[in-house]
Amino acid sequence: MAVSKPLLGYWKIRGLGHPIRFLFAYLEVNFEEKVYELTPELTYDNWYADKEKLGLDFPNLPYLFDGDTKITEARAILKYLCRTRKPELLGKTTEIQTRIDMVDNFVYDLWYIEFSEMLYGYTEEWHKKYKAIEVVRLDRLSKFMGENDWSTGNDITYVDFFLYEVLYQFKKFDAGCFEKFQNLDGFLTRFENLPKIKDYINSPDFLEGPCINIIAKYKI
């Protein structure tokens, strides 16, 4: 059955949901949200109760229902919203699209494989190893971005919505992580000051936190 407004299903955290929420705000698209929370016993039962009943090809969170379209995976959802609402956010040239693809995959690996796993399985030793990796990764990202306003040039693209949330979480974890990378810090400020984003951040609908589920050993 088609839904009247786009429906986003995700945990009651920022996580992979916030880039999508920010993009909805930027596009001025009203949407509804199905929020999942861990049970008091810290199980995923609330999600598991729905998981196989939603008609999803690859059941996962986040998911999006938009009319008759059902889609999962955060980055696929971001690109779908751009294709159907504002295609220029996918990049206007082949060169920019290639840069977007590189940033997309680089940032996902940095956030999900390195940062998120470290938070969920946190130990002091793991933290030290992550810090050494973080400096190298941020240095490469900073040099790639250079003096551009956005990650791939001077026009905002969908990958900037993903990148913003990842960098926000890095700064939440380590307030001084951008001291040597002022262009990355400036990127955060620039994104937050986009009029539609600023309005969303200041609205009662905005979820300030947490960034990650409460089962993580290190919570931000």
From TrEMBL:
GO biological process: glutathione metabolic process; xenobiotic catabolic process
A Pfam cross-reference name: GST_N
InterPro entries from the UniProt entry: Glutathione-S-Trfase_C-like, Glutathione-S-Trfase_C_sf, Glutathione_S-Trfase, Glutathione_S-Trfase_N, GST_C, GST_superfamily, Thioredoxin-like_sf
Catalytic activity, as annotated: RX + glutathione = an S-substituted glutathione + a halide anion + H(+)
The GST N-terminal domain, residue ranges: 4-89
UniProt-recorded Gene Ontology molecular function terms: glutathione transferase activity
Keywords from the named record: Transferase
Cross-referenced SUPFAM superfamilies: GST C-terminal domain-like, Thioredoxin-like
PROSITE patterns: GST_CTER, GST_NTER
Coiled coil: none
Domain of life, source organism: Eukaryota
EC number from the UniProt entry: 2.5.1.18
Domain GST C-terminal, residue spans: 93-211
Its job: Conjugation of reduced glutathione to a wide number of exogenous and endogenous hydrophobic electrophiles.
Family of the protein in this entry: Belongs to the GST superfamily. Mu family.
Subunit structure: Homodimer.
Protein name (record): glutathione transferase
